Amino acid sequence: MEKKRIVIIGAGFAGLNAARELAKLDVNVTLIDRRNHHTFQPLLYQVALSVLNPADIAEPIRSVFRGVQNVEVLLDEAVSFNLDQRTVMLGSGTELQYDYLVVATGATHSYFGKDEWASLAPGLKTIEDALVIRRRVLEAFELAEREMVEKGTHPQLTFVVIGGGPTGVELAGAISDIAKLYMRHDFRHIVPSQAKVMILEGSPNILGPYPDDLKQKAREQLGALKVEVHTSTTVTDIQPDRVIVKDSEGVSRSIEATVTLWAAGVQASPLGRKLGLPLNRRGQVTVDQFLNPEGYPELFVCGDLAHFEQDGRQVPGVAQPAMQMGTHVAKLINADLKNQPRKPFRYFDKGDMATIGRKAAIAKVVWPFRAHLSGVPAWLTWLLIHVAFLINFRSRLSVLRQWVHTYLFFKNGARLILGLQDTPNGGDPLAQNKANLNSKAMPAGD
Description:
446 residues, alpha/beta, FAD/NAD(P)-binding domain, 2 domains, 5-stranded parallel sheet, 4-stranded parallel sheet, 28 strands, 30% helix, 25% strand, disordered C terminus
């Protein structure tokens, strides 16, 4: 009997876990991704803020499946589907036939219809995004140093993070950390610790899904890092050197910004539209208890692309559910192969956590015990869990070594400015940040 062919689109948490489990079955698996590596997204912000290198949190997909005979990896992308004929057309022109299809292409940034903001306020979803953010943040300090040498003054450095969810909080805390701790002896003419860091959040609270006590602890820890938190503040416009906001009373004001970063919204991968299925307002495909869109038992949609509800609430689009969905897809296909009934998917929530800075974090732990943690205990829990979930042993050792180097000895070895400057006006590689600097000068430091 010919082996069933499973095609997986996307090698994120859901797709990778599905492929690893399916590799144990008597099936043929084709795993397709536009990139040749899997990225551990929860640590992307540490690449963006120079704590880790890209290779610390990314693993070539082929390396993961080295020696696995029934899994093939293609560097390609899906461009169209024929769900009735069970075919996928790839960008290379190849048409693949499948018995089962797993679509798990994740999510991307949402600028709420203001896509022109993307170049002015980069978001954080890929390693490329992380390197853009790293470059803009580090160049801001470099330009300030250069202006001190040239003019004897430099404009106030202000870093504005739009969005007060976990990514926004992590970015803001990390920027404050590197400015106050890791750069303090690097410059001769500026005082990095005088940089201002702000979070702008449209809702009344940061970290919306977290319990109230942890939200308060997070604000206290951000306050200790001198991060300004502005809630009930809606962004109405982003310009090269400022952000226009409106408060809860409808009063508008302008905030000067050296670097603006986006952490305010996400939407499902555009690939979901190509399936030709009904989508929710975020572009997600609604799936049933078996992770299937209605009428397509051979099609599984997982991770951020799936709208899955449990106990009347939508399961969040984060790493935990994606990993569990991917693993469960393999169980469902295995049940089909054995002519056994399928078991419905049920998400097991182990908790949530967000790091805020060095020795600062919050954690809602559900398993293996229930607790609300903050400060050092939460930070240590965060460290251990994230190391445990990295793909391979080499990555774990590398990350542990880098964290010891960074957090114990205040050394930050990944502070490299890489890549070409993505300025709209070209020329001077610091021109974008120079345009972003406002006119308020800072005095020379000691």
